[in-house]
Amino acid sequence: MPNTMRLVVFALVLANLLLFVWAQGYLGVTAEADSHRLEQQLLPERIVVVSRGEPPQLAGQSENGGIPAARKASESCRIWSDLATGEADEIEQMLREDFAEFRTSRRTVNENSGYWVYIPPLANKEEVGKKTAELQQLGVDDFFVVQASGPNQLAISLGTYRTEEAANAGLETLRAKGVKSAKMGERKGKPAYVVLELRGPSAQAEAVQRSIAARLPKAVAKACAVAPASAP
Fold this sequence. Notes:
Elements: H1 2-23, H2 33-40, H3 69-73, E1 75-83, H4 85-98, E2 103-109, E3 112-119, H5 125-137, E4 144-145, E5 156-161, H6 164-176, E6 183-188, E7 193-201, H7 205-215, E8 221-223
Antiparallel strand pairs: 1-7, 1-8, 2-7, 3-5, 3-6, 4-5
């Protein structure tokens, strides 16, 4: 019987010892699954988060998702203004033949300054003086004499208007006051002209400018306006 008790006590001690050894990981198994997973990571301190909820930026793509800055910088953009239609056609033909990588965008500007009510140009300053005195006697004080050289020199402007209807109304008001020589007409702006925008490789920009200057010595180019950066 004493031997049996000794065996039982020995078995209990041995079981406790094995449990202790297993809990400490001496048998090759850690006590916690999480600590086991950490041991399997390769250099976890070097892991870097590159994106949160967004796809990573592709190589060669700018931060705003557009054309890379280096590519944008390699493109030239120049504007040639005040061109006649034939001059714009000549530039585009030259580009098609010699600089095919350049793209053009053209628009025609037709300026119209509106309408005016006026007394046609008078013969001399003496006639202008007499006419302005007559206007003042009729109660018309809002006028000015055109002094600039040209077809309207020494005409008397009695008002400018944005629309033809408003100009006709102004004319009728003056006629009601007794101004019989007044007329209504369109105020001509500068003749229609073409604005030509050229875009292409910066490496060829100087050659393009020299070619255009050789054909159109008076033509002047300017850089395209830079678009403002969008807010983040």
